[in-house]
């Protein structure tokens, strides 16, 4: 029979939880002996504690976890409201970020949330429980994805006032095994989070405003009636990215990730308004992936050039530019010069002849505009009109010439379509 553990001194309270983890720890210690790893970690945790454990940040508890990890719990002072506790936590996160930038501390990710902590005495030791530890851990893990040192949930972000004007909206996410969406934020400051110290802060604040306005529209806000509208979001994010690139000389990673998401999901799915971006881990070797590998093998055996183009060297994908068009928009006019081939991502389009007679109705997954390329004059052979609001991916004539194999695929589609219609 299992021994009974005596539980005593149970205490539950609201606190700010910070979870930290060193980046690339396994790589950094791969060639170290156990004694060297011990020395390395003692120095790391000593430096981290020196930065965190200042009198101005108390009351707090700091505890090393799982080697390179660390848990910090910020408790409320007597008579203090929770907003002041959030301020202390965010100040600590910024001190750590500044230490990372100055190479005082190895690159470290941080996740910060406001949550409930249950602390109990289990026999001879204390243990802490609470679902919000998992949220903090997930946010810490996403720092690399979004290219920042720390992420915090909306509860901390909206309550803190230290960096009110430097607060950056990173989006609304659904995390695996977390049953509610999380609005996440970080702070951009000169010398921290990839913004150079010597650039004017006015430029940084302009960038933050551009990005936050785009992300507000991306995530939506039921309370204010803001509905996600990806076409405008994409334009706004591209403008913010261009501004950032012009000032910093490289792209903002968080904008890159959201643009990538929009490229893969041109329209909000059914649960997006409620749950936001889905950040769900993918199984590495499920049945579908194994079938895909088998299909690739068969394709490679049948047509080596096609395999290389479609599976390995997929640079052509980025030349299919997203377009959002409204119901009734004319997409192609008969006898005009071809300017590209379209892939219909979603919605319906109608294809008609010169007399307005229906030739075909196309839906998501169909290609159109390819027939013109069978003729040397490259003139359109039909009219195409959007029957509903549509999302398209279009590759221009000039870009199509860069990829002979893709052009050959479109020619095969065109010949098959002509044969079916004859």
UniProtKB/TrEMBL annotation:
One GO molecular-function entry: intracellularly cyclic nucleotide-activated monoatomic cation channel activity
The superkingdom of the source organism is: Bacteria
Q: Which GO terms describe its biological process?
A: cyclic nucleotide biosynthetic process; intracellular signal transduction
Taking every annotated instance into account, which residue ranges of this chain make up the domain Cyclic nucleotide-binding? 298-403
Q: Where is the Guanylate cyclase domain?
A: 16-140
Task: Please tell me whether the keyword Ion transport is annotated for this protein.
Answer: yes
Task: Quote the protein name from its UniProt record.
Answer: Cyclic nucleotide-binding domain-containing protein
Q: Which UniProt keywords apply?
A: Ion channel, Ion transport, Ligand-gated ion channel, Transport
Q: Name one Pfam family in it.
A: Guanylate_cyc
Q: Give the residue spans that cross the bilayer.
A: none
């Amino acid at each position: 029979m299992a021994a009974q553990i005596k539980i005593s001194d149970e205490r539950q309270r609201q606190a700010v939880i910070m979870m930290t983890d060193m980046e690339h720890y396994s790589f950094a210690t791969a060639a170290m002996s156990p004694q060297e790893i011990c020395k390395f970690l003692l120095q790391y945790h000593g430096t981290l504690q020196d930065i965190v454990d200042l009198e101005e940040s108390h009351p707090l508890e700091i505890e090393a976890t799982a080697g390179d990890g660390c848990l910090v719990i910020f408790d409320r002072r007597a008579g203090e409201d929770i907003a002041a506790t959030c301020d202390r936590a965010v100040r600590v996160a910024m001190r750590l970020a500044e230490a990372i930038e100055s190479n005082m501390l190895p690159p470290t990710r941080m996740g910060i949330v406001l949550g409930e902590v249950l602390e109990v005495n289990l026999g001879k030791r204390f243990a802490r429980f609470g679902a919000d530890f998992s949220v903090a851990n997930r946010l810490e893990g996403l720092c690399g994805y979004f290219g920042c040192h720390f992420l915090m949930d909306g509860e901390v972000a909206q309550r803190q006032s230290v960096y009110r004007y430097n607060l950056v909206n990173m989006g609304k996410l659904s995390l695996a095994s977390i049953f509610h969406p999380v609005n996440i934020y970080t702070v951009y400051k000169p010398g921290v989070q990839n913004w150079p110290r010597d650039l004017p802060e006015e430029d940084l604040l302009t960038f933050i405003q551009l990005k936050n306005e785009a992300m507000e529209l991306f995530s939506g806000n039921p309370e204010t009636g803001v509905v996600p509208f990806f076409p405008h979001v994409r334009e706004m994010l591209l403008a913010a990215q261009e501004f950032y690139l012009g000032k910093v000389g490289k792209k903002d990673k968080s904008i890159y990730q959201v643009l990538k998401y929009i490229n893969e999901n041109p329209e909000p799915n059914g649960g997006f308004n409620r749950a936001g971006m889905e950040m769900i881990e993918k199984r590495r070797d499920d049945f579908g992936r194994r079938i895909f590998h088998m299909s690739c093998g068969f394709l490679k055996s049948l047509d080596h050039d096609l395999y290389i183009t479609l599976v390995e060297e997929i640079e052509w994908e980025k030349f299919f530019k997203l377009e959002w068009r409204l119901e009734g928009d004319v997409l192609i006019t008969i006898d005009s010069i071809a300017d590209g081939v379209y892939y219909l991502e979603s919605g319906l389009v109608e294809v008609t002849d010169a007399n307005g007679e229906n030739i075909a109705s196309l839906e998501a997954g169909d290609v159109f505009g390819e027939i013109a390329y069978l003729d040397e004059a490259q003139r359109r052979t039909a009219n195409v009109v959007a029957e509903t609001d549509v999302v398209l991916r279009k590759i221009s004539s000039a870009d199509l010439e860069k990829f002979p194999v893709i052009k050959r695929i479109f020619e095969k589609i065109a010949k098959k379509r002509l044969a079916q219609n004859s």
